[in-house]
Amino acid sequence: PASPSPVDNLPYGSRFPHVEVADQARLQALLLDTLGIERVHLVGPSVGGLIALSLACQFPERVKSFISIGSGYRASIEHRLSLFEQILAIELDPDFRGGDYYQGPFPKKGLAFARIIGHKSFVYQEGLEQRARKEVGGQSGMLAWLKPTRSTQSYMLHQGTKFAERFDANSYLRIADMWAEFDIRDHTPEGTFSTALEGFRRETIPALIFSIDTDCCFRPAEQQDFANQMEKAGIPAEFHTIISTKGHDSFLLEPELYAEPIRRILG
Fold first, then answer.
1. Of 157, 159, 168, 197, which one's alpha carbon is 20 to 30 angstroms from that of 125?
2. Catalytic site includes residue 215
3. What's the CA gap between 66 and 43, in Å, rounded?
4. What is the DSSP string of 21-57?
5. Marked catalytic residue, from 151, 211, 215, 250
6. Which of 46, 82, 140, 154 is catalytic?
7. Is 76:219 a contact under the CB 8 Å cutoff?
8. How many other C-beta atoms lie within 10 A of the C-beta of residue 60?
9. Count H helices, E strands: the chain?
10. What are the residues whose beta carbons fall under 8 Å from the beta carbon of 144, sequence distance 6 or more?
11. Residues 6+ apart with CB under 8 A from 222
């Protein structure tokens, strides 16, 4: 959205369209074409897992194996509501101006608030105070009345304001909307899991699914349902639950916990 439009050389801003996960998957297929790569081992964590699943369903002949890490086949109602709250946080910032803010000021407060809402689901809540204990103090220029007195408040403000300095609000909106609207069953007119994953059966694509026991983005029960749905559709799926105190961020912070099953499926 911050890129210049070839029509008038101004940022697309509000003119930039909604983006679907399927669009991202098709874009990656075009990238593979450009690079001359015919088939891949497909690995996706979090939102990347949704894109990987969509790519495998659209282009199964290009996939050697499929690995989903802390992801799924749809966003839960709980997380869709969280993503809606994040979109609202940006939309309601007066500086957002419908997405046409590139002449400044930028909607940094709305974006920081959105990130704070989202960040709650990325970390293991029971371990948040320990993770935040060195973050006490400072208001980050966002607050007029409240002075943070708890490390968790300070930590969340720090995470939000730091993120708002490096990310574009319009891009964040497109990603949040893309995530909230995804359901792999919508890939086919029949609207069923089995028909959406027909290519997995046809190409006999092996699947590996990782869940994280403290994940609040894609909860373990959702991950188990993902694996069960694959089995019901006749697709063998190896399922692992990672025990971690890092929450959804585990796959970023503890790669060694995922290495052995990935090594086997790649072999």
1. 168
2. yes
3. 6
4. HHHHHHHHHHHHHHHT---EEEEEETHHHHHHHHHHH
5. 215
6. 46
7. yes
8. 18
9. 12, 4
10. none
11. 72, 76
What architecture is domain 83-177? Orthogonal Bundle (1.10)
pLDDT tens-digit profile of 124-153?
Answer: 777 677 777 665 565 567 888 888 888 889
Is-catalytic flag, 76? no
192: CB partners within 8 A, 6+ apart: 185
- Domain(s) labelled CATH 1.10.1740.110 in the chain stretch across 83-177
In the set 79, 158, 187, 248, the catalytic residue is 248
CA distance 263 to 259: 6
Long-range (24+ apart) CB contacts under 8 A made by 175-179 are 175/19, 175/47, 176/83, 176/86, 176/87, 176/114, 176/118, 177/18, 177/19, 177/83, 177/87, 178/18, 178/19, 178/20, 178/21, 178/24, 178/47, 179/21, 179/47, 179/50, 179/75, 179/79, 179/83
Q: Which CATH class is domain 39-74+182-266?
A: alpha beta
- Annotated active-site residue 248? The verdict is yes
Instruction: Determine the residue type at 251.
Output: F
pLDDT tens-digit profile of 182-240? 999 998 889 999 999 999 999 999 999 999 999 999 999 999 999 999 999 999 899 99
- Residue 12 DSSP SS3: coil
Residues of the chain with CATH 3.40.50.1820: 39-74+182-266
